[in-house]
Design a protein that fits this description.
The chain is mainly β. The chain has one domain: Porin (Beta Barrel). Helix content is about 10%, strand content about 55%. The protein has 3 helices and 17 strands. The chain has a 16-stranded antiparallel beta barrel with strand order 1-3-4-5-6-7-8-9-10-11-12-13-14-15-16-17. A hairpin with a 2-residue loop joins strand 13 and strand 14.
Length: about 300
């Protein structure tokens, strides 16, 4: 009798545990990235933060609960960490802090998250939005920050590879202290990825961008037109290529602000050690169109994703 009771209790616990596991999950993830860097006019240094690393080191938590009926609730909290000093970002979860409801209708996200402009640029940008990429150093992400506080975001389901995102940033807690409206349309299909994006701060003119990348096999080529004059960052174009040569991938990328006669250049090589870890060497030049002098940075680093 005792054995039967024990077996029943064990089966019940395992069943409940299985249901709970099926309904919700929490994932720990992150990036560790450091580089040796030499910048014009500065001594050689060990860098653990943007813009002298491929990516910003971070640690994050994301979780999802299956609500039934095709609905899911999820959250994301992400903090930036500098492995050079061990210091964390302020605010601590400055990279992401949000809550999402998703289903067949798409998704609605509330809180601090990436801007539609960032997601549009990263859809085709060759480095995967590396900290030193010339597109963002020249034009930011369609003229504005890569993240927003107090953002209300709606993203459609994918229709034949096309998604659209509309976001409104409330003035209250926003770093720009103004309200802002942003949207993007992104296409991903086969060798082609393309996007367009638009944003407008309530007290400034609009910014917009259209860009695309195509993988020809021997090389991937990306180009864009950028107008960030509403944010005071000029307008112009970007053009670059990514060329695989054995295990090494080479990137040459240029961003030209034709209004301010300013050219930013990136040369980068990556060597994978595994699916999650790679070595990189890069030389980035920021032109003097918006500054008094050229700034050159040369760096060698390693990035590990977990």
């Amino acid at each position: 009798m005792k054995k039967q009771a024990f077996a029943a209790a064990t089966l019940s616990a395992l069943t409940l545990g299985g249901v709970a596991h099926a309904q919700s999950s929490v994932t720990l993830y992150g990036v560790a990235d450091m580089a040796l860097a030499k910048v014009t006019g500065q001594s050689l240094r060990l860098a653990g933060a943007s813009p002298l690393t491929n990516g910003s080191s971070r640690i994050g938590f994301r979780g999802t609960e299956d609500l039934g009926g095709g609905l899911n609730a999820s959250f994301n909290f992400e903090a930036q960490v500098n492995p050079e000093t061990g210091a964390a970002s302020d605010p601590f979860f400055g990279r992401a802090a949000n809550l999402t409801l998703s289903g067949g209708f798409g998704s609605v996200l509330l809180g601090r998250t990436l801007s539609p402009g960032f997601r549009a640029v990263s859809a085709w940008e060759l480095t995967g939005a590396a900290n030193y990429n010339p597109v963002s150093s020249q034009f930011s992400y369609v003229g504005v920050n890569s993240r927003n506080n107090s953002q209300i975001t709606y993203t459609t389901p994918s229709f034949g590879g096309v998604t659209a995102t509309l976001a409104h940033v409330l003035k209250g807690n926003n770093a720009d202290d103004v309200s802002k409206t942003e949207f993007n349309v992104i296409y991903r299909g086969g060798p082609l990825s393309a996007s367009l994006a638009y944003n407008k701060l309530s007290n400034k003119d609009a910014n917009h961008m259209v860009g695309a990348a195509y993988n020809f096999g021997a090389a991937r080529v990306a180009a864009s037109y950028q107008d960030a004059t509403g944010a005071g960052r000029g307008k112009g174009f970007t053009l670059g290529t990514s060329i695989p040569a054995g295990p090494v991938n080479f990137i040459v990328d240029v961003a030209r602000d034709t209004e301010n006669k300013d050219t930013d250049l990136l040369l980068e090589a990556r060597y994978p050690l595994s699916k999650r870890t790679f070595l990189y060497a890069a030389h980035a030049r920021n032109g003097k169109g918006k500054a008094e002098t050229d700034v050159n940075a040369t760096l060698i680093g390693m990035r590990h994703n977990f």
